Amino acid sequence: MTGEKAQSPIGIFDSGVGGLTVMRRLIQAMPEENMVYFGDTARVPYGNKSQETIIHYTRQIIRFLQSKSVKAIVIACNTASAFALETARKETDLPIIGVIEPGAVAAVGATRNRKIGIIGTYATINSGAYEAFLNQISPDLIITKKACPLFVPFVEEGIVEDELTDGIIKRYLEEVRNQGVDTLLLGCTHYPLLKPAIEKFMGEEVVCVDPALNTAEKLRAILTENRLLNRLGAGDSPQYEFYVSDYAVRLSEFADRIMPFPIDEIKKIDIESF
Amino acid sequence: MTGEKAQSPIGIFDSGVGGLTVMRRLIQAMPEENMVYFGDTARVPYGNKSQETIIHYTRQIIRFLQSKSVKAIVIACNTASAFALETARKETDLPIIGVIEPGAVAAVGATRNRKIGIIGTYATINSGAYEAFLNQISPDLIITKKACPLFVPFVEEGIVEDELTDGIIKRYLEEVRNQGVDTLLLGCTHYPLLKPAIEKFMGEEVVCVDPALNTAEKLRAILTENRLLNRLGAGDSPQYEFYVSDYAVRLSEFADRIMPFPIDEIKKIDIESF
After folding, report:
1. Are residues B93 and B219 both part of a single domain?
2. Looking at residues A208-218, what average pLDDT do you find?
3. What is the pLDDT of residues B72-115, one digit of tens each?
4. Which of A76, B53, B135, B244 is most exposed by smallest CB count within 10 Å?
């Protein structure tokens, strides 16, 4: 039998709708869980904002998710994971996981030559969060990192398999490839949508690691350990709710490109009031 | 003699630092005016947000600028001009001008073949604001419009004279060029920084209109009419103050690329509290 708390949803948030790439992995790993997603579309992107601002936004979002009685929180946004996870954990009495540590663990598991590349937004790359975890797990790694701020707008424009995309990938990733990395950490929720184009440029020797996969595994382990894993009754379906801070241009179109099912309803909330 | 109110600053705001291209024109046209600039760097960009959200942000910013005792307000942001100017004028007892109407007037003055192109963010283009003014001034125009959402991130990355920029310009503007426009309205504060590359693609027959020039002329006329034009005393310099809602990544670097003088101090304020 499943306790009442196990039926509570998992809360997931991101600066925008890119975090749906993480939710998709959570659903694959835990198909019986109820979930509440929040995308901060009014204030996206986080990638060039300061730590102070991102902590402020994260606090508001966690208060909103708590109002939905979530049993655990996944910070799907790499930038918020890098800047605000520690503060969020201190201030919140719920299991909270980010994508950085699971991503680092996956990358160390994947590399054979100990050379790892990390790509992400300016904020994520400058934070040093991935290196901190990588060095903690394995101090002998050779790490190359590169901020790729144009990748997100390219993905949001739907320009993903295109000669222009290949051009910007070459511009950003040529020096990373030249370092001989055999593993590339995709340190931004949008980047899995560019994975085929990035793999084409990096070559088949290089493994592109999407932190979402390992994040989903880690969360399942935490829920199992805390006896919080949900079991649906026969014939029941999991409930998914979607919230945003703004009905942004082409929101549903972009969401539908990511999710394996159409999203019926996206509700807008006033995040500044939380 | 200059009255006390004439010495009050002009308030200028934009979704980010792109509006400094407008402030630069205001300084050229009115070198004796004091000015207060606000860039909403915590919530930039506005270009893919909804009208409701942009009106909410504009109200907060106008309250902030009023706290600085401004004598007039320039909405340097095209998206905010398109969505929030009318509401702002109704609610505020100060002269407020946007960039859309002055831009439309300048474009009609520039065209010879009556074919005008308009480029901007999704929000500006979808708002129909430029066409509304253009059609009001001259109903026989043939208008071609195109949202170019990747131009802003390219400019912010400093990729402006580059084969990648030429590629994205060709992608967005080929159909506009093929329409035979002889005038192109640069409907976003960042676009003047791409002007040389856009002119190279569009050809020397096409005039690129930066609405900021005419906006500055219009504001000077309004201040003159209302006896609000400032006269500095001998040896005095105008005062410029710069505020943002976040110390964004590479803020000063980008600002210094636009302004003709280095900016000594940029202050951060909590815009949500206004």
Report:
1. yes
2. 97
3. 999 999 999 999 999 999 999 999 999 999 999 999 999 999 99
4. B135
**What per-residue string of b and e applies to A217-243 under the rule 16 or more CB within 10 Å gives b?**
bbbeeebeeeebbbeeeeeeeeebbbb
Separation in Å, CA A209 to CA A94, A98, A103, A186, A204: 27, 15, 7, 6, 13
- Residue B237 belongs to what domain range? 5-98+213-273
Going by pLDDT thresholds of 50, 70 and 90, the confidence category of residue B2 is low
Question: Which residue in B122, B150, B249 is closest to A48 by CB distance?
Answer: B249
The SS3 of residue A226 is coil
Q: What pLDDT does A1 receive?
A: 46
Q: Are residues A137 and A220 in the same domain?
A: no
State the pTM of this model: 0.91
Mean pLDDT over the full length of chain A = 94
Does B199 share its domain with B107? Answer: yes
Residues of B (104-143) whose Cβ lies below 8 Å from A: 122-123, 126
> So what's the ipTM on this one?
0.89
- What distance in Å separates the CA atoms of residue B217 and residue B35, rounded to the nearest whole number? 16
